[in-house]
């Protein structure tokens, strides 16, 4: 008699199919976001240039110096107020559009994650029920996602992981993740790393704030022989990530840790990376995270972060536009992070200033 296939090989992403109405709702939200973020955003800039900026210059005898001055000038403007309300609503609708889909299929998702953890093909999952969730995460729902990254609704829960994975596909304005479930951010960095350093052959990589693994998996595809490690404070994220890795046969080791205080040995990794993670931390937390990255990176290794453009590199209006998230999207550290001189910060953490760059 042939053995039955392991449930751990089941593609967990396929276990939560959307209904017809859910697909239609998600398509609408994607298009609404595109309307707000592209079409209306362009109109709002023209409103600023034609009305708000001249009024500010007439009153102060100069243009706005920074994003905060632009924000104060824009707050009373009816177009900004309408745009901001629509953007906030579209952000909430992103998560609402996938939550019924997840709730309906949650038992199957939990079963698949349990099977992956019980009989892993490769890789591992290590959770810490006693881990104290940092206040940067526990105090608010980042990105307005109900429950944030860490909330658990039941035993062995994966709901937040599923909501995040499906919701970010909607969030992408209709640009779905590729069939192999590789995230575009991780894929772009992985290919850049290979092209920039063709002789670099990393063996172990650490992804900080890995969520459900979308931006960790591309590194493993682009760099043969690479073993991936992902840390996050959210257990539902990690259970979901582990199940995804198992279904793809990838060697990825996930552990529930605070990136500010890792339990890995010094010099454990050839690459330490993150994808739009640091701007969600306080400045003090960011500094501790960078110091830990320096500690666990091997001599000759590479630290690489995909992040937001620094405030010093863009004009005051674009700083105002980007920093909307700091005020309305539950990302209160967004603006303070962008104001940092990142070259100085990595030097403070122990890296050689002459070998650090932004591009």
Would you mind describing this structure in some detail?
The chain is an alpha/beta fold and 359 residues long. It has helices at residues 20-60, 67-74, 78-96, 99-118, 135-138, 159-171, 184-196, 217-222, 235-248, 283-296, 316-322, 324-328, 334-338, 342-349; strands at residues 124-126, 204-208, 227-232, 252-256, 269-275, 297-306. A six-stranded parallel β-sheet has the order 1-4-3-2-5-6. The longest helix has 41 residues, at 20-60. The relative contact order is 0.13.
Layout of strands and helices, then pairs:
Layout: H1 20-60, H2 67-74, H3 78-96, H4 99-118, E1 124-126, H5 135-138, H6 159-171, H7 184-196, E2 204-208, H8 217-222, E3 227-232, H9 235-248, E4 252-256, E5 269-275, H10 283-296, E6 297-306, H11 316-322, H12 324-328, H13 334-338, H14 342-349
Parallel strand pairs: 1-4, 2-3, 2-5, 3-4, 5-6
- Spatial ordering of strands, largest sheet: 1-4-3-2-5-6
Mean pLDDT: 93
Main sheet characteristics:
6 strands, parallel
Oligomer: single chain
Strand content: 5-15%
Low-confidence region ranges: 1-8, 176-180
Count of helix runs: 14
Termini, distance in Å?
58 Å
Shape, per Cα inertia axes: globular
Structural Rg = 21 Å
């Amino acid at each position: 008699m042939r053995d039955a296939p392991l449930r751990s090989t089941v593609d967990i992403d396929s276990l939560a199919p959307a209904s017809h109405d859910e697909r239609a709702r998600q398509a609408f939200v994607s298009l609404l976001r595109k309307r707000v973020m592209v079409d209306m955003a362009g109109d709002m800039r023209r409103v600023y240039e034609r009305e708000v900026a001249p009024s500010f210059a007439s009153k102060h005898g100069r243009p706005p110096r920074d994003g905060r001055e632009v924000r104060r000038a824009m707050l009373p403007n009816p177009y900004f107020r309408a745009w901001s309300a629509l953007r906030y609503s579209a952000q909430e609708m992103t998560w609402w559009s996938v939550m019924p889909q997840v709730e309906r299929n949650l038992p199957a998702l939990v079963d698949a994650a349990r099977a992956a953890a019980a009989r892993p093909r490769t890789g591992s999952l290590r959770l810490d029920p006693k881990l104290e969730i940092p206040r940067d995460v526990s105090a608010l729902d980042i990105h307005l996602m109900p429950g944030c990254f860490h909330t658990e609704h039941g035993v062995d829960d994966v709901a937040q992981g599923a909501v995040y994975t499906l919701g970010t596909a909607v969030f992408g304005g209709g640009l779905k993740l590729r069939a192999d479930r590789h995230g575009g951010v991780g894929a772009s960095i992985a290919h850049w790393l290979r092209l920039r350093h063709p002789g670099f052959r990393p063996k172990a990589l650490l992804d900080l704030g890995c969520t459900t693994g979308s931006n960790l998996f591309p590194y493993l595809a682009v760099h043969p022989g690479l073993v991936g490690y992902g840390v996050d404070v959210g257990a539902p994220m990690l259970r979901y990530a582990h199940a995804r890795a198992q279904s793809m046969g990838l060697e990825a080791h996930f552990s529930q840790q605070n990136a500010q205080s890792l339990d890995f040995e010094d010099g454990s990794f050839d690459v330490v990376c993150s994808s739009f993670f640091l701007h969600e931390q306080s400045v003090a937390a960011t500094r501790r995270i960078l110091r830990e990255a320096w500690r666990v990176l091997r001599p000759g290794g590479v630290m690489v972060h995909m992040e937001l453009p620094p405030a010093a590199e863009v004009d005051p209006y674009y700083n105002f536009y980007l920093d909307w998230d700091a005020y309305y999207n539950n990302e209160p550290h967004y603006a303070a992070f962008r104001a940092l001189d990142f070259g100085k910060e990595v030097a403070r953490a122990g890296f050689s200033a002459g070998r650090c760059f932004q591009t």
